[in-house]
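Working notes for the structural subgroup meeting. M.R. asked for a predicted model of this chain before we commit to crystallization trials. I am recording the input and output together here so anyone reviewing the notebook later can reproduce the run.

Input as submitted:
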Amino acid sequence: MSETQNNTPEKKKLEDFTIGGMVYKTTLTRKYKNRKRYEEPDSGKVKAFIPGTIVEIKVKRRQKVNEGEPLLLLEAMKMRNIITAPKEGYIRKIWVKKGDLVAKDQLLVEIE
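Returned structure, recorded in token form:
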């Protein structure tokens, strides 16, 4: 037990925590409770893996692309990175244009 600012005891709640199928009772920290939750990646959304500048866009809206086909060039730290299609489909929307500065995890292209 810990004490609050007015010196009254504060009861900590035990919570269930599962690791590898085993359930444990523990107190979870505030940091753990406020963490960013894991989200399953959406294979139809192509995001920047590093901050940089869009040098060239190689596809157009509604164009059919195959898995591994180049979508655009992203220049970062004096290196040009080819961003490829993660799956087969059609370009739904291009969120950037040539010369745009992009941040890490910024949405670049949507594929449907």
